[in-house]
Amino acid sequence: PASPPEDTSRAFPGYGTVMRTSWTDPKASYLSHRTGPNYHHYHYDHGSLVYYAKGVPLCTDFGNLYEPAHRRESRFHSLVHLGEGDVGSGGVKDFATLRRTADYSFGRTHIGGGTLSDRHILFVKSADPLGANYVVMRDKTSAGKADQPITWSLWCLAKPWVDPNAPKIDDDKIFDDFGDEPLDEAPKDRIHFTGQFGVDLDVHVLSPNAPKLEMEKNWEWTQHIYVWGPFKESMSAGRIIKQGHDEDYFTVLYPRAEGQAEAVVTSLADGAGASVKHMEGMDYLLLSPGTPAALNEQGVRLSGEVVITRKYANGTLRLALLRGKDASASLGGWGIASSGTVAVEIVGKTITGETDGPAQTVTITMPANSGPAAAQLDGKPLTVKREKDTLTMTIPGGYHAFTVKL
Question: Rounded mean pLDDT of the chain?
Fold first, then answer.
């Protein structure tokens, strides 16, 4: 196209959803959630994801062409499955997008034996492409056998994982340009992938409690593919195994470039939410689809199903509501409430907001004695109702940007 599309994220019912931070930034992040019913030349990969972060591929589909293995089986994809079994069809159940702030994708997959897998993805964005852009996922299973082993798999373009109890291997025999991989005792609540392109991936496991984590040693081969010529690929898998449906898979996929510190991720609100302390500040979030929840922590109050706030180190605030009837968020004397999809960012005395979806009423609570307010919607004056330190505005359907200056 002559210019990039305005929408950075979108649902494609036959395929699934695609979410990204930018069309033009070479360091952009991108996530594809394959959750549509289409088959054709697809593998058994309904419910799977492909993830690029900070401009490089991390979690991808295999690129080999039928050999040395077909790799159409579900266990060779990043999804929830029943052991060695293959998943069936799926579909998009819900989708919400806020171009600057976050996206939400919900897909349901039939994974065999009457068992259902509901994958909920919160794609968190930052204005800085190398900043705190990350993914939160809740995978809920139900129906089928009440007590059966279920596996969560994630494949990553990563250096081979090394069992600390195994003899040391020389990575240079596998990767000509990489040094040896140190032998690390893996933490019991997260999986670390050492990326091949300067970005690593930490998978923080908030649920199940005391998870059974496994790493599949890398699959590596060289092959001549008629379109590309010589082709070389190496992938490693992390797996989480649970028994039955009592606990969800609740995970945070946090990518970090060279020199960036690990995030500190903590489960909150009885497992309905989490905090993520990162290089840019602190996030609090709820990812509790279908079950309204509340979080009250360190002066942050969240209510709803899919809600997130961020306090930047420089004092800037972000509050976003993506799902939940009468959802709300408050932080630092500011608050927002709506049943629609809306986000605000507060810098000094300027509020910048965005909405999407059906028409909605948005209520913004300001600190006491905030002074007069002038609002605009899509660059045109907007009439708002004010009662003391509360603003109420009616926003029409579709995507809109608004500002309030105090």
Answer: 88
